[in-house]
Amino acid sequence: MMKTMRLSIGPIQYFWERQRVLNFYQQAADSAAEIIYLGEVICSKRRLVKLDDWLAIGKELRQGGKEVILSSLTLLEAASELGALKKLCSNESFMVEANDVAAIQLLSTAGKDFVTGPSVNIYNNRSLQLLARKGLKRWVLPVELGLDTLKDLQAQRPDGVETEVFALGRLPLAYSARCYTARSHNLPKDDCQFKCIDYPDGRLLATQEGQEFLVLNGIQTQSALTHQALEQVPELEALGVDVLRISPQLQGTPQIIEIFDAARKGADLAPLGKELLSLLPLGACNGYLVNQAGMDYDAFEVA
User: Fold this and answer.
1) CA distance 37 to 261
2) What is the pTM of this model?
3) What is the mean pLDDT of the chain?
4) Domain span at residue 83?
């Protein structure tokens, strides 16, 4: 009998007010998601919620039956950030999602199991085998890879390693030492005035022709369209994917989780797809998964 895929809530990628974060995880505690990732993955200057807070939130969620993972920064740029990473990786309460190789090194040296996030470039089976020997227990498919590559990797996946797919959210496309949000306000990164907090779903960037193209989120560049893999849920299940990740957005995340929960339980995908599209800020894309341009959308054919 095929095992039902679990749902995860990825780390919040945006800079939210502290109370908004706390409220979000109160809702997450009552959701159908079995796994919740906590932590700051974009910018170390976002300190309204600190490590001790994440640990406290995590313990409450675990008491409610959730599996909790602490996520690390994706791009380290200073000795202070490395120090914070060492503290995160030394915690004795939760497994860590390593979002760069420094975290992998710290965790593997300490003999700790870990998860790798979508920013870790696992493109072939040799990488999976190597990381499995170092303690990898679950990996997230890089968002630029498609179902054909996933199929090949699943066929040779190491024993004891789970696969997670980024199933909904604006695509994390690039990271830079510069802060794009600060630059868009003519501010230097060191005096950014925390402008990210004014854009709880990121700052939209349009082309000169007015096409909504990208989203600025501090040092991160995202897609303007929201990637979603609802149509591919049956195929992902057939490929043996263990976890579907929902990346939080400002509005509608609880309803989105309900939609994917219904999909994994075999509900009709067509009406679920229409409902899901109504919850996405600017529309959907899924091109990378189906071996097309990332902005493309292989949509449902609804009569």
Assistant:
1) 18
2) 0.95
3) 95
4) 6-169+227-268
